[in-house]
Design goal:
With 285 residues, this protein is of the alpha/beta class. Helix content is 42%, strand content 19%. InterPro entries: ThsA_Macro.
């Protein structure tokens, strides 16, 4: 109910409530004009009270935040959803998994990669904690990508030392279900992942290009990349979602990327989103 206390929420409730009140008033006045009597003689105050309460209830119901937030585009023909749930439950979609530019995979003691992150869950739930197999698949996918540098052990004591360009996409899996591993953040020598809006926008562009090339227009599901441990600190979660939406729609205007994009948000975080604002933004695209 927090949305109800926002200016946007109150404006939407007021607008719908006024429309409901006006419609009810018009019907009552029409009845009185035709039959020259009120519906409930000598109970006008009660009728007015009931109409006001009903109008407010109607306004709240009409303004209630959508679950999920969605829109169907006609050019191109695709749908976009912002839903509450678990990313790895989206078994009919290709998944987007965020990585750093070193494509580190070690979740031991959570020092390099946090086990609770999307990448950490990817290792556990898709690769059954077989890090050697994941590293082998990543190496094969990155074989044709020229590194931008190799760190020494003095510069980066733990984890992988080969850096790839920010925005590199390593595609794993099978054509039926692909995993787009996007290196959208830079791993510092002290094992802190850092990214920013420019890096994220560039990485999303590379992601959509790879999805167009390999995804066969299948559904794509992704978390809010850049949130949490990726540390795009200058941008809040709703703005990150808008950035993803804008990037996807802009790329889709040029070529069909996917028939459906799902941005999957954990239920607790989904409840905190201003879904009215996101719906209005999505409708404006």
């Amino acid at each position: 109910m927090r949305w109800l206390l926002t200016m946007r929420g109150m404006r939407r409730v007021a607008a719908h409530a006024f429309a409901g009140f006006a419609s009810a008033a018009l019907l009552l006045q029409t009845y009185q004009a035709i039959w020259n009597r009120s519906i409930y003689p000598r109970r006008e105050l009660m009728v007015a009270f009931v109409v006001v309460v009903a109008a407010v209830a109607y306004g709240v119901a009409r303004a209630w935040p959508p679950t999920p937030v969605r829109r169907r585009l006609t050019h191109p023909d695709c749908s976009i959803r912002i839903i509450a749930g678990d990313l790895f439950d989206q078994t009919r979609s290709h998944l987007v998994v965020g990585f750093t530019d070193t494509f580190d995979t070690d979740t031991g003691d959570d020092r390099i990669i946090n086990r609770g992150s999307v990448q950490g869950q990817f290792l556990t739930r898709i690769y059954d904690d077989d890090r050697a197999r994941l590293d082998m698949d990543l190496d094969a996918a990155l074989a044709g990508v020229a590194p931008v540098g190799v760190l020494t052990r003095q510069e980066k004591p733990l984890g992988k030392t080969t850096r790839y360009p920010v925005g590199t996409v390593a595609t794993l899996g099978t054509p039926q279900r692909l995993f787009f591993c996007v290196g959208y953040s830079a791993m510092s020598p002290d094992l802190v992942a850092q990214s920013g809006p420019d890096e994220l926008w560039h990485s999303l562009g590379r992601l959509w290009a790879e999805a167009h090339r390999r995804g066969q227009r299948g559904g794509i599901a992704m978390a809010v990349v850049g949130a949490g441990l990726a540390r795009v600190d200058a941008v809040q979660r709703p703005t990150l979602i808008k950035l993803i939406l804008l990037s996807f729609v802009a790329a889709s205007r040029q070529r069909v990327i996917s028939r459906e994009l799902s941005i999957v948000v954990p239920p607790a975080e989904f409840a905190e989103l201003d879904r009215l604002e996101l719906q209005e933004f999505l409708d404006s695209l």
